[in-house]
User: Fold this.
Amino acid sequence: AGKHMVSKVPREAKVLERPTEGSCPEPGKGDRGLPGFQISEGLFSLTFLLTPSYGYRGRDSRSNLFVLRSGEVVYFIACVVVLYRPGGGPGGSGGGGQRHYLGHTDCVRCLAVHPDGVRVASGQTAGVDKDGKPLQPVVHIWDSEKLHKLQEIGLGVFERGVGALAFSVSDQGSFLCVVDDSNEHMLSVWDWNRGAKLVEIKSTNDSVLAVGFNPRDSSCIVTSGKSHVHFWNWSPGGGAQGNGGLTRKQGVFGKYKKPKFVPCFVFLPDGDILTGDSEGTILTWGRSPPDSRTPGRGGTFGIIAQTRAHEGSIFALCLLRDGTVLSGGGRDRRLVQWGPGLTALQEAEIPEQFGAVRAIAEGLGSELLVGTTKNALLRGDLTQGFSPVIQGHTDELWGLCTHPSLNRFLTCGHDRQLCLWDGESHALAWSLDLKETGLCADFHPSGKVVAVGLNTGRWLVLDTETREIVSDVTDGNEQLSVVRYSPDGMYLAIGSHDNMIYIYSVSSDGAKCNRFGRCVGHSSFITHLDWSKDGSFIMSNSGDYEILYWDVAGGCKLLRNRYESRDREWATYTCVLGFHVYGVWPDGSDGTDINSLCRSHNERVVAVADDFCKVHLFLYPCARAKAPSRKYGGHGSHVTSVRFTHDDSHLISLGGKDASIFQWRMLGGGGTPSRGVGDASGPTSVAPSPSQDQEPSPPTSLHSVPSPGRAGALGPPQHCTEPQAEPSSPAPLPDPAAERGQ
Assistant:
């Protein structure tokens, strides 16, 4: 990219394209040793380590909840497979905590656990790289104790994604069955130890939702999905090439109503199979008489019983250790335990706030783990009921702010939920239904109230303790993209998509607001803004890449000479355009590649959220082209926001479409908490250590639909497929050792 034009109109601060060094006001020599910003690269021994993740992908995925031999619960969110240790809560004082498998490069869609309870298979969806080239899905088989990848299969074989997985049982888990998401839903059987595909066949053009080996006979495989149950006989060593053959027999519903979907099934100890369907019925499939002479073998099954179990779909069936079966309902949210002859023994109902039952896993003793369609993970039993241990949002996230004095943060998004999270216990403190989409938020410096901007031009101020709305104001009818209190708490600035910044004077610790004025002069929607340390001036960015400066105390006046602001100190730095941060932009950027930026409170580093699923860490100030950075993955969608906690000990990042929330712990060069960034104690994950590779430049344009979170801006790519942690600079950097959390 060449030099970017400066507007010829009288407003000298207007920048029409992404700024470079020549188009931004360069600070004077007295600012942090400028010019040149010669800062020791030794400071860049800082790095991030993913500690807890918030959320569980239950809204649109299955086969996503299991209990390992260690007692850990395994599930996934975005590109991360989480191993959660039950205790007083994830990361809480009762012994709970998380570890993470970070080997995937795109969203994980399904899991399977080996019969040994240690090895895990996880399948990811297809993705695209930064140049828009498709990257193929793959299955990882990995050791859950060491978090070490053992095998990778299917690269170049699967299409679109991996929809379902299952290990064989009767032969000590030697084989893995995979169903992909192609039009034909190809079913393949693998000798996963050798990474060899033994057989592959077209399954059906209808959706396949579940697959499983008969635990008594690995030659029998069952699949179910849209309007079908298929019974497969597999002959190892047969087939045209000697690698085995698959033959299919379709389940016949006969006099029974054919359901639209059969989402789940389970094998009983006597060899029968139970299926749960969209009609709320459990069908019992038994072997026909010729097969009954060979217990556990054969592939001819027919319906022998029908049981009305739920109102609405049955999403999950689970065989318990005592031989009883649990079914989980959709519409009725009921968990029902069934005894011999499918006699109902007891039941419980999941509270409506958590949604329908998505998955069930049996824990220690009588404990049950239940995943729900509203992305919650519940723990309990049928007698005492269930309580949440993991909760999350269910739709795209944009709003994020951190508490000014506590390790707490607040999020909001398209699910219309406003959530306050405790960064110490890693749990939800409270949530509130906004009734409208929340896009931005900011705490008052006192921490007593929080301002939340909505997509209708309306903004609220809420008491953080009582959740009571103390102010309800509407400015225009366009969505609000940023709300920001001045550092002294005397003013509140609201940036709108109507191109204006509304200024309010604030009193009573933020509880009372009165219109002070408007900043009028931007020619596109407001994207970011920051206050000066003295609370008198604002720096703002807009959708057409303007950088404007405003004298608020002087009457919301536009400062036409931008060089007057070159040495001004800013209380926060979240504007993505400016001289101090122009080095975060890679070559070829089209101006929409960076969604969020945040400078640490100690002004040492800058975190950046990009449109390619990555979080970057730069030194601050970052005022030279191709500045060195470290890059971290885990999100499976565009990263919409990043914020440091009040003591810089952690960074919070939000995923867009994947609705994920990650909390990153700041570490020093030796994998220890960095001085001056707070305590970093607590459970951690095993994260890949950054390597020294060159980052390719992103495309100059993204061919995608406009993102609802940034009207007028190009939207994110659907999938991202880069390594989890790597630097994005040719400059040599220290390589901190990977930390191994327990």
In short: The first strand starts at residue 47 and ends at 54. The chain is about 0% helix and 40% strand. The two ends are 46 Å apart (CA to CA).
